[in-house]
User: Which sequence fits this backbone?
């Protein structure tokens, strides 16, 4: 039996200890720890990494602190439009959705696209019709109405700025959640979910639903989930790039992540980070921003929790 | 001055000489040759590869024979929903749109997203609002109404099949158009445009608008445009994979294309092909299907045109 391992992120960006209260910090840590526990419960029973990824992300989506699911930020039109994707390292199957509304857990919809449709990527109204056909759990608008997020929209509209995430007046946090896991069968999986950017217009799609950019898993190399300024992550095909540096150049997970996040992305101007896991159970939680909500847990080891640099 | 070169495709799939009339074949060849001429006119004057790619693709989009722009196939709801993307090898900037309607030239909208927005990927109604703001050319529904395409939808609905493209009763052709080019300044560019799949439902998005999967350009390696069963091209991150095999493994363009299209895609079950160009002006037109509409032209050389294996 392969030892299991799991890692999650809850977004990266300008997360400064100086603007955090002890209560808020404790709440974030509890959210991260709950999500790890949800994923680990699956892995401990010998369940699949795919299910562990789904459960950990559902936990983060249900938590209003994170920009995904319930806590999604508001678009320019005051709506919540969410994106998610998931990939199975064993056979490279994948599912993704973009621009869905009123879906309680977009990550579960992405998994349904992977397993119950002949497609990989569904978007907008069509994706919601597919969810309806499968009777996926829906929630009314007020479920997603988090007062703090609405204040962020009002602020962003005043300055006509498109903020990447939560807030903090300044550049703010880059809101996405994600998970990578390896199960006792040695299979890797990765998933990512987001509520997008506050005040976003024009049906913008970031890297979250893009296989190869925001999410990638391949048993030959690694599982990756990204968070950051999506446009740069798309242009750099970040998740697949880490995998290719390992597969074709023979780099370690750590070397590959460092080159992509600390060198290539920085040169492009792309702020953010990623979580990564290889088949040996190595875990990397790498970011070039001020902070990244992150946690990881290896079988029979203690929980790691981090927020700042 | 670097010698310029350009290559295009008009889709891959089950294209059999036995089901082709001499008139139809001549029309396809004229369409390909016109598109090369449109792109070459830009390159000959010392223009940018990005503009050559846009002009060649506009020519294919305006031609009802190809599944893009005017000739787009019909969705299940009898609509034309189009996707396109473009990438600049010089600085890795990129633009993409998905699920747009009534836009005469989706490739020009993708370029506008790249150059006139802070985003890479816009979808659906939002992408159309962006097009409206920029006053991009629109056409009414009947401009896109090609009788043959509507017959294909009726046939597909009768059998509830989702066909990948044009038709032929059988599996049919896989409809996409694309272009790769290098200009006299030595810069690479790539673009792809499609009308999607006949009878498509649920807002399905294929590989065409996905940077790294359907389209990729990087002056360090190559420019790629794909056509085929998009789901497999997404899962295999095809265009970026060719680039990584060159950059990290030191393979030639020809070796990298062969591995990805004839080995990796075949093992996954993915039918289709791609066109590729490197900075030395090497051109690859590779496919694992029965045929691929294709053409290429190097500066001071004669035009190459191909349809079948």
Assistant:
């Amino acid at each position: 039996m392969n030892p299991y391992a799991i890692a999650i992120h809850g977004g990266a960006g300008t997360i400064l200890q100086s603007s955090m209260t002890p209560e808020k910090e404790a709440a974030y840590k509890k959210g991260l720890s709950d999500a790890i526990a949800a994923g680990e419960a699956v892995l401990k029973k010998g369940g699949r990494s795919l299910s562990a990824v789904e459960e950990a992300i559902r936990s983060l989506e249900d938590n209003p602190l994170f920009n995904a699911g319930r806590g999604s930020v508001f678009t320019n039109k005051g709506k919540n439009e969410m994106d998610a994707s998931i990939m199975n390292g064993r056979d490279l199957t994948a599912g993704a959705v973009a621009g869905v509304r009123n879906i309680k857990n977009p990550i579960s919809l992405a998994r349904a696209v992977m397993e119950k449709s002949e497609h990989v990527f569904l978007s907008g109204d069509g994706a919601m019709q597919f969810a309806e056909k499968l009777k996926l759990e829906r929630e009314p608008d007020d479920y997603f109405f988090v007062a703090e997020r609405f204040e962020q929209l009002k602020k962003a509209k005043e300055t006509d700025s498109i903020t990447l995430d939560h807030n903090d007046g300044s550049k703010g946090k880059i809101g996405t959640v994600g998970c990578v896991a390896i199960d006792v069968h040695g299979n890797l999986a990765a998933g990512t979910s987001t509520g997008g950017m506050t005040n976003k217009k024009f049906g913008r799609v970031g890297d979250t639903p893009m296989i190869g950019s925001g999410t990638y898993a391949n048993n030959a190399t690694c599982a990756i989930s990204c968070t950051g300024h999506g446009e740069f992550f798309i242009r750099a095909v970040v998740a697949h790039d880490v995998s290719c540096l390992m597969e074709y150049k023979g780099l370690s997970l750590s070397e590959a992540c460092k080159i992509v996040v600390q060198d290539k992305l920085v040169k492009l101007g792309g702020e953010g980070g990623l979580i990564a896991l290889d088949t040996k159970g190595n875990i990397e939680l790498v970011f070039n921003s001020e902070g990244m909500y992150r946690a990881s847990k290896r079988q029979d080891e203690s929980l790691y929790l981090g927020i700042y640099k």
Observations:
- Chain B has one domain: 5-308.
- The interface with chain A takes residues 87, 92-94, 98-99, 117-127, 129-130, 162, 201-206, 210-213, 216, 230-231, 234-237, 240-241, 244-245, 248-249, 268 of chain B (CB under 8 Å).
